[in-house]
Write a structure and sequence with these properties.
Length: 168
């Protein structure tokens, strides 16, 4: 909070740790980088992901300032989202856009927890209960959580390599 009591929101700059698109081509997972212009909001992320959609949907994985992650999944015109920590919306524009997209009220300081669709990748191999347990683990960094998700979906080594987790 600033001295006037208003919340200072951080726009993306060097605070985005990584922004990847995961998608399947001929049943094989591929990874691609999302353009900076796609990192403004859920809508721009969804639009950026649609260029990777080969008919099987695409999953955006964004890690922010070693603090939280955003998952955005597009399949045709449908967009599903998951924010690992709803309180991030108090400081981060991209997190605020998730809260707005979901139609949720502004979070309070003690509202820590995920917001959105815990079953976002249930049909791909990670059930909502497992996702809920993962995002509740306060000992893990966002890249480690997303690595776990990527591993369960079948592209863990490629994800780890892309974000520099290999060998950790």
């Amino acid at each position: 909070m600033s001295e006037s009591g208003s919340v200072t929101r951080v726009v993306h700059d060097d605070t985005i740790d990584f922004a990847l698109a995961a998608y399947r081509t001929d049943g094989e997972w591929q990874l691609g980088e999302l353009a900076d212009t796609a990192l403004e909001s859920v809508e721009t992320l969804a639009a950026g992901l649609r260029r990777f959609d080969t008919g099987e949907g695409a999953l955006g994985m964004v890690g922010v300032d070693e603090d939280f992650f955003v998952l955005v999944r597009v399949d045709g015109h449908a967009t599903r989202v998951l924010l690992s920590d709803v309180t991030a919306a108090q400081e981060w524009e991209i997190a605020e856009s998730v809260v707005d997209f979901l139609g949720l009220p502004d979070p309070e300081d003690d509202d820590y927890g995920p917001a959105g669709d815990l079953g976002i990748v249930a049909d791909l191999g990670m059930h909502a209960d497992d996702m809920g347990a993962l995002v509740d683990d306060v000992e893990l960094y966002p890249d480690e959580m997303l690595s776990d998700i990527a591993t369960r979906l079948g592209f863990g080594p490629a994800f780890d390599d892309a974000v520099g987790l290999e060998g950790l």
